[in-house]
Amino acid sequence: MSELLPLFPLPNVVLFPQVFLPLHIFEPRYRAMVADALAGDRVIGMVLLKRPLEDGEEGPPPVYGTGCSGLITHFERLNDGRYNIVLRGLERFSIDTEDHALSYRRALVTPIPEPTLSADDRLTLQRHRTRLETLLAPAIGHANEDAPGATAMSDADLVNALAQYLDFEPLEKQALLERPCLRTRADTLIELLEMRLLLQKTPGATRTAH
Prior knowledge:
alpha+beta; Archaeosine Trna-guanine Transglycosylase, Chain: A, domain 4; five-stranded mixed beta barrel; 5 helices; globular
C-alpha cells in the first residue's frame, strides 16, 4: 500500500480479514472520507482508539498501530449526507506515518499478510475448530445477532468471525487482531472463551483485559 490509506478510528470496533462490518457514517469528516473512498478504490482502514485526548492535549487522539483495511462493498447515501456502508475486511496493516492534510486521518501503512500455515499448524487449527465449536454453544448467547453460521465457514473465516462478532472487550479484540497467525489467534480465542465460561461459573468473579 504505497498510497495514503484513509483511517477510521473508533473506540469499540475492530475489523478482521474476510469479515463484514456495517457502519453508519454521520460525522462530516468521515462523510468526506467515504465520498473520497467511493470515488477511488473504496478501501478504508479501521483502527482502534487507545484513549480520548486529555485536557490540554492537542492533535488527533492516539490509535493502536495495527488495523485492518476494508472494502466498501455496499453503501447507501441518505438525503442529509450520512452514509450506511458495509465493509469487508481485507488485510491487516501496521501504521508507518500519518498524514493530517485533510479533515480525516490518512496513513502510509505496511500490509501484514497472514503467514502460510505449516501442516502441523493446519492440524492444530482443525483441533482448535473442534474446541471452538464445543465452546460456541454456551457462548453464542453473547454473540452479535448478525454472526454467520459456523458450520459452513472455513477454519480461517470461523476464527476471524468469532473474534469480531463475539462480545469481547475492544482491547481483547485488538489483541486477537495482533496475533501473528491464525493458529495463535485461535489459541487466544479459546483462552478467552474458556475464561468467560469459568467466570460465569464463579460467583463474584470479574474479567480483566490485559
